[in-house]
Design a protein that fits this description.
Oligomer: single chain
Structural class: mainly alpha
Largest sheet: 2 strands, antiparallel
Bound molecules: zinc ion
Number of strands: 4
Order of helices and strands: EEHHHEEH
Strand content: 5-15%
Helix content: 55-70%
Number of helices: 4
Low-confidence stretches: none
Number of domains: 2
Shape: elongated
C-alpha cells in the first residue's frame, strides 16, 4: 500500500510508492530524459555543458543535474556534465558535495567522535574513582 503524498514538483496529491514524484511529473521527467539523451547522443553535442543542453532542449538545468546525480547521464561519456556542489558551488560530477566539502564534513564528524571518546573516558575515570572510594570505605 502506498501513502498519499504531495508531489515535490507540482504539489499534486498522489499515491507514493516507489516513485517520489506524481505520475504526471514522472512522465515529464522521462520525456525530459529522452530529450536530453537524444541531444547528447549526437556526436557534436557530447561535450555540451548543462547550461548548453538546457538552452537547446528546454529542459531545466536542475532536471539535467538530477539526471547526472542519479547517474542516468554519465560524465565519463559526456565530459562536461557537471553541476554545483551544494555547499560551495564548485563544479562536481557525482554526489552532492565536492571533495573538499565532503572532507570537511568527514573531519567534523571525526572531531565529534573524538570529543565523545574523551568525554566517555572522563566519565569512566570518574566512575572508577567512585568505585575505589566505596570499596575503601567498605573495608574500614
Ligand atoms: Zn507532480
Ligand atoms: Zn564544495
Amino acid at each position: 500500500m502506498g501513502e498519499l503524498a504531495n508531489c515535490p514538483r507540482c504539489h499534486a496529491i498522489f499515491m507514493k510508492g516507489a516513485a517520489t514524484v506524481c505520475p504526471a511529473c514522472k512522465k515529464k521527467e522521462e520525456q525530459d530524459f529522452q530529450t536530453v539523451y537524444a541531444f547528447l547522443r549526437k556526436k557534436q553535442n557530447r561535450t555540451a555543458t548543462v547550461q548548453e543542453i538546457s538552452a537547446k532542449t528546454d529542459v531545466e538545468e536542475k532536471q539535467i543535474r538530477q539526471f547526472v546525480a542519479q547517474k542516468r547521464l554519465h560524465p565519463a561519456q559526456f565530459p562536461n556534465l557537471s553541476y554545483d556542489c551544494e555547499k560551495c558551488g564548485t563544479s562536481i560530477t557525482e554526489g552532492r558535495l565536492c571533495q573538499n566539502c565532503s572532507q570537511d564534513i568527514e573531519k567534523g564528524l571525526k572531531q565529534l567522535q573524538k570529543n565523545e571518546g574523551l568525554e566517555n573516558r572522563k566519565l569512566e575515570r570518574e566512575r572508577e574513582k567512585a568505585r575505589t572510594y566505596y570499596s575503601l570505605k567498605n573495608e574500614q
